[in-house]
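Researcher: Re-running this chain for the archive, since the previous output was lost when a drive failed. Same request as before.
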Amino acid sequence: MQTQIKEITKESLKEAKKIIENGGVVAIPTETVYGLGGDAFNDTAVKNIFEIKGRPSNNPLIAHVHKDYDLSKITDYDPPYAKKLREAFLPGPLTLVYPSTGKVSPLVSCGLNTLAVRVPSHEGAQAFLRAVEIPIVAPSANVSRHVSPTSAEHVFDDLGGKIPLILDGGECQGGIESTVCDCTGEYPVILRSGLVTREMIEKVVGTCGEYTPDLKSGEKVKSPGVLYKHYAPRCKTMLFSAKNAKNAKNAISAYIAENLENKGVAVLCEEKRMEEFEKAGAKVLNLGKNQAEMAMRLYKLLREAEKLCELLIVVEPEETGGIMAGVLNRLRKACTSEDVK
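Model: Regenerated structure tokens:
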């Protein structure tokens, strides 16, 4: 199969709509990451998404709709606080999980009586969703467990030859996936951290919980991004906490001493720590100087690292609150932890 990358135009949207109507899949941009989109009502399309990605069949999908879509078509109940969250944050990087049984393909929610729904703010995504006028399930458009894609080129690197069309909407500005919030109880509960923080949600609705899955008990996964190693580059990794940066420097010295002939070692860290690791002899990737930059750059730099080095040493940023909860979540799933607790 030949994969084409096309700018978003009336013509490319018509082509994308035809692919979707025939049960195919299309890569689409959002403000967070690129998604691999298919018809949420079509069992074959949903199955193809799982197969193309190599995604585990117990990892639920998120349905994407445009901002004026009638949610009653796909949900069973809309709690009052969910409406407040939509008014405050949508369109935007927030996914809300509603009670829903039998409204879309049963493969979407992997046996759960719920449906995760998102309204992306990216103009190209909105144009695509209006063109097709149906819910589109769209997990990240990459091979499962690899680093999520934030450009059309990233999608092509993973899925070239496997899908017919990538709609190019430029580089994603958010950088990490949406916050997922369970709206099936008395108050919202965060299932996956992201760009909309717990503090932001609490300001709108007062109470917001945070869910920790008990996967050992056999509990079903409620949200994408919970199971398995995720977001991982194709190089060796070592993750150190900010307070143990000295151990990261020791790891650099040991690696350089033992591996003089290969591609070497690189460090991913926040901007203010770059100089100390450059002095230690490593190539340094600048994660950024503030929370928004760190989220936006994370996946791009993880993909850059796998082409740059044999070993990537990651030193966690010092900040832990706000958006950093989502950034740290991705880093800890992407990298082999040496001392992070």
